[in-house]
Amino acid sequence: MTKYQLVFLLCLVLQYSVLSQEKKTEIKKTQEHEILNNVVVKGKSQKKKVETSGFAVNIIQTKEASLTNLTTNELLDRSVGVRVRQNGGLGSNVEYNLNGMSGSTIGIFIDGIEVSTYGSSFNLNNIPPSMIERIEVYKGVLPSHLTGDYVGGAINVVLKKDVSQNTANAAISYGSFNTFQADLSATYRDKKSGLSFRGSGFYTYTDNSFETWGRSTTYVNELQQIIRPYRAKRFNNTYKGVGGRFEVGYTDTKWADQFFIGYNGSSNYTEIPHGITMAVPYVGRFNETESHALLLNYNKKDFLIKDLSLTVNAVRSERSTYLQDTVGFAYNWDGTIREIIEFGERVPLQTNGGQQGQKTITNTDRKITNARSNLGYMIASGHRFSLNHKYEATDRKDEDLLNPSSGDLATKSLVSKHIISMNYEAETFNRKLKTNFLGKYTTNRTNQTKSEIEITDGTNTIVKNKSTTSNYNFGYGATMSYAVMKNLFIIGSTENSYIMPTESQLFGAAEINILPNLLLEPEKNINYNLGFRYEVVDFGSHKVSFYANAFWRNGFEKITQQAVDVSEIQEESDADIQTTRYVNLGKTQARGFEAEVTYIYKNRLNASFNISQFNNVFKQEIDTNGTQHSFFGQQVPNEPFFTMNANFQYRFNDVFQKKSILNTYYNTGYVGKYYTVWGQPEWSVTPSQFTHDLGISYRFPSGKLVASMDVKNLTNAELYDNFRIQKPGRGLYFKLNYTFNKFL
Fold this sequence. Notes:
Blueprint: H1 3-30, H2 46-51, E1 57-61, H3 72-77, E2 82-86, E3 94-98, E4 101-102, E5 106-110, E6 113-114, E7 132-139, E8 153-159, E9 167-175, E10 179-189, E11 195-206, E12 211-212, E13 219-220, E14 226-227, E15 232-233, E16 239-251, E17 258-271, E18 286-300, E19 308-325, E20 339-342, E21 345-348, E22 353-354, E23 357-358, E24 360-380, E25 383-400, E26 411-428, E27 433-456, E28 459-485, E29 488-499, H4 503-507, E30 514-515, E31 523-539, E32 542-556, E33 559-561, E34 580-584, E35 587-601, E36 605-618, E37 642-653, E38 661-671, E39 674-675, E40 685-686, E41 689-699, E42 705-712, E43 731-741
Parallel strand pairs: 5-8, 30-34
Antiparallel strand pairs: 1-7, 2-3, 3-4, 5-6, 7-8, 9-10, 9-43, 10-11, 11-16, 12-15, 13-14, 16-17, 17-18, 18-19, 19-24, 20-21, 22-23, 24-25, 25-26, 26-27, 27-28, 28-29, 29-31, 31-32, 32-35, 33-34, 35-36, 36-37, 37-38, 38-41, 39-40, 41-42, 42-43
C-alpha cells in the first residue's frame, strides 16, 4: 500500500467516525424545543459556495462585463493563473493555459459538456458574456459534475438559465478593424404549467486588419533576402460567425426541477492568414465550419426517493469543416506576389499549388455523442456519495474533394471513451472541514480505416488499412477545505491520473495547421495544490479579500505542440514553421504560485490585483542515445510563465440625470518574456508585454439602456502570443445594450 492510499484510507475512517457522531447529535437536537423571537436567514452566494468547497477554483462574474466590449476570452485572460493563447485577432485559434497545464489536460466546458462537441463556430471565442451567468476556473481536481479525462483543471462556462422573469436583452457594438458584434437573448416561463423557453443568438464579423511591425513579420525580396522586422497590415484575415441556442422545457415541476430539450446551431467563415508562425502570409486559404447539436438537460432532487438526485446532460452533434487552399503564388506581407530572378528577369514565385504545400480542398465530418449522468445520494446531513458515468465518441470522416474517388478513399476514424467515477463529499467538524474523495476508471479506444489505391496487374484496387488501439487506466484524487476562522479557509488538493490524446491531436486538424500523430501516448500527471482564501474582511466602508495557491505538478509523457530545436536548424528562418504536431515531451515538472487581492470601497470602487508564476521545466535527464539531455532543466518553450493583472472600476451615481450610473474601468496586464525555440536563442525570445485598457459605460435612469465605449491596448503596445504571433494594436469600440423587462 502506497503512502497516498494509506492517507486516503485514514481520511475515510475519520469521516465515517465523525458521521456516526453527527447522527447522534442531530437526533438530540430534534428533541429540543425552543421559542425563536427572531429568525435571520443567512446564505452563501453561489460564488462563495464554489470557492470554499475545497477546490482550487476562481469564479468570474460576467454581469458588468456583458455591458462592455469585452469578449469571454478577454475576461478569462485577466483571471488569476489563466493565459489565453490566441493565434492573432478575433476568431483565430485559441488554447488555454492554467498555470502551465494546457491542451488535453484542460477541460473546456459549456454547462458541463465539452465545448469541442459544438465545434469551432460555438466556443469561448465567440460566445458573448451576455449569454453567460458565470465562469468557473478550476486548477487541479475537478468536481463530480465535471469528472473526465483531465488533470490540469477546467474552465466551465455556465450559461444563463434563470427563467423566473420574462425578459429579453439585445446588444450591438462596432469598433476598430471593422469589427461588428450583436447578440440577443430571451427567457419566458408560464407560471401555471411551468413550461419555459430560453433562447440566445449572436453574430460576429471582423476584418482583423490590424498592423504588425515586430520581428515575426517578414519581407522577402527578389534576391530571396529576408527583411525583418517589417511593418505591414494583415490581410486575408476576415472572420464571420453566427450561432444560436434554443431550449424549451419545464422548471420546478413534481417530476423535474429542470427538463429541457434544445438545439444549438452555428457556422463560421475563417480566412487563414498564415501558418504556425507569421513569417509566410497566405492568400485564399480559408475554412468554413457548420455545427448542429441536439441537447438534453434533466435534473431532479429527491429522484424516486428522498435525498437522491439525478442529473443528465447529453448532446448529439454533427459538425463539418471545409478547407480550401488553391492559390498557386507566394505572397509577401505587403500583399504583393513574391518574385525571384530567373535568367536575369523578375518572375512571380509559384508554390506547389497551394499556400501551405499542395493544392487542397478537403471536408471533415464529425458525429459526436457526449453524455454525462450523475446520481448522488445524501447519506446524512453533510455527507454525499455520487456515481458518475461519462461517454464520449467522435466518428470522423476525412475526404479529399480534389480526388474523384474521395468517397471511396475517405479516411474514417473513431475515438471513444467511457469514464466511471465515484465521489464521496463530506462536511465535518461542525461543517468546518469539507472533503471530496475521487476515484475514476477510464477506457479508451481508437479505430482508423485508411483507404489507398494499389495497382495489381494493371488493375486499381482499393486497399483498406485498419489500425486499432485501446487502453484503460485508473485515477484518484482528493480535495480539502478547512475554515480556520469565520472567513479564512485553507484549501488543498491532490490528483494522480492519466489523460488520453484528443481526436484532433491524434488525427490532426489541417484548418489550424496541426499534423496527425498516431503514435501519441497517454499523459500522466501527479498534482498537488495548497492555498488559502480569506473572504471579505469588512472595515466599514472598506472590504478586502485575499486568495493564494501554490502548486507542484509532475508530468510524464507531456502532450504538447512540437517546437523547433535550435541544434537542428541552420538559421533563424528555419524556425519559421507553417505546421506542427502534438508530441510526447517526456518528463516535466512545474512549481509555482498564484495570488489575488480584491479591494472594495463603499461598493463604488472595485480594485483587484493578481499574479501568477510557474517554472515548467524539462526533467528528462537521459536522451535516446543514453547521454545527458542538453535541455535538462530548461524552461518548456512557447509558454508564458509569469503574468500580472490589475483591474479598477469606479461608479458615479446621478451623473447628468438622477438614478443614472456612470462606470469607469481601467485594466492593465503584464506578461514576462519567454522563448519559443528549444535552446533559447536570443532571436526566439517573445519580449515582455505591458497592456492598458480603458472603458466607460453609462446606464440611463430607466436601467434598460446602457451605452459603453472601450479603448483596448491604449498605448498600441507590441503584443504577442502563441509562437510569437502579433496581436491587435490599439482599438476603439462602442456598444449599446437594451433590456426588455416583462415583455409578456
